[in-house]
Design goal:
Distance between the termini: 35 Å
Number of helices: 1
Shape: elongated
Strand order of the largest sheet: 2-1-3
Helix content: under 10%
Order of helices and strands: EEHEEEEEEEEE
Length: 133
């Protein structure tokens, strides 16, 4: 399946649609072409701004989700900004203004520390449960 992100104002992803890969193939070269899929979606939906996204992250860094932003300079989809103080690095990742603690463990958007935007510090997460196999 080919996946396409519908982009709204400021290239924010509004939804992601799919189509069969065969619908994106150039009939002369037999090569998939993003522009063929985009033209099909433009014709079917009337919406003009689309970008193909990769479900397995092979291109444009990550699979687009609703609320993500397409960054044309980096040619990748960027996660929503987690906090006002964080900045985007050249790899398309949000970085805090204060480095994560050396023993930081991230688990499904949680972990042993949580960012405190008000104090600009990493606070111990009282709800963290370490994984033990």
């Amino acid at each position: 399946m080919a996946h396409f992100a519908k982009l709204g104002i400021n290239n924010v992803v509004l939804e992601v649609l799919t189509m069969d890969n065969i619908e994106t193939v150039d009939r002369q070269t037999l090569v998939e072409d993003e522009n063929i899929g985009i033209a099909k979606l433009q014709k079917e939906t009337g919406h003009l701004n689309w970008k193909q996204t990769s479900y397995n992250g092979k291109f444009r860094k990550r699979y687009a989700g609703v609320g993500y932003t397409y960054n044309s300079e980096l040619d990748m989809f960027i996660l929503p900004k987690p906090f006002a103080s964080w900045t985007l690095d050249s790899n398309g990742d949000w970085q805090p203004p204060v480095a994560r603690p050396a023993d930081f463990v991230a688990v499904n958007q949680g972990g042993n520390y949580k960012w405190n935007e008000e104090t600009q510090t990493w606070d111990v997460n009282p709800n963290y449960i370490p994984f033990t196999p």
